[in-house]
Amino acid sequence: MNLDTSRGADRSFLFVLGSSRSDGNTEMLAREAAAQLPSDLPQRWVDLNRLPLPDFQDGRHETAAGPAGENEELLRQATVEATDIVIVSPLYWYSFSAQTKRYLDYWSGWLNMPGSDFKERMAGGTLWGVTAMADDDHVVADGLVTGLSHSAAYLRMRFGGVLTGTGSRPGRVRADERAMTHARTFFQGEPPLARFPYETKAGAAA
Q: From residue 43, how far is each of 16, 51, 85, 153, 201 by CA, in Å?
């Protein structure tokens, strides 16, 4: 396994499961990729169905925000403690699942908590994605890919891309040989720093 560990021996992965069902195609694909990671590299898996969050309320302009709930605080700590965050969400209506989108919305709240160092702690880490869909043409997942890429760019994270597979009926993704092959090398290499499209264009014009 040629996983680049140049960012330090304290590297750890957080897999955030956002499917509405357990052991779905997206999770199967993610676990295939995770099985290729070094055995001494910590992995933590959290299922958003088992750690439900209420709908996110934007409290940026309120004088006194309420305390974070137990599930929210657990997810926040798991997020900032990981060097690599893997969003594992099936493609629902060409974007994230509801559970996944709600979790990502909470990032906005964590950015604005009094005394928050969320953005500083996220910077330099790596954001990855895994998704399964019914369509054979994975270009339909571009909306999900863009959402993750732009989120990584805003937080000055690296972006490792999105591992995509075809699978609607339970277990169908295992028949997607291209996806399963890609899964075995997905976490290799050193992902680049994420950049917004206008930053890329500005750099090319300079």
A: 11, 18, 10, 24, 36
CA-CA-CA-CA torsion sign (148, 150, 153, 159): positive
The answer to whether the CB of 56 falls within 8 A of the CB of 100 is no
Q: What are phi and psi of 47, to 5 degrees?
A: -105, 115
pLDDT in tens, 173-202: 999 999 999 999 999 989 999 999 988 766
Nearest to 55 by CA among 99, 97, 114, 11: 99
Comparing C-alpha atoms, which of 52, 97, 58, 88 is closest to residue 72?
52
Q: pLDDT tens digits, residue range 116-128?
A: 899 999 999 999 9
Whether the CB-CB separation of 194 and 40 falls below 8 Å is answered with no
Q: Which residue has the tokens 């720093």?
A: 193
Q: At what angle do helices 142-154 and 98-111 cross, to 10 degrees?
A: 10
- C-alpha to C-alpha distance for 113 and 9, rounded to whole angstroms: 30
Sign of CA dihedral 187, 188, 194, 199: negative
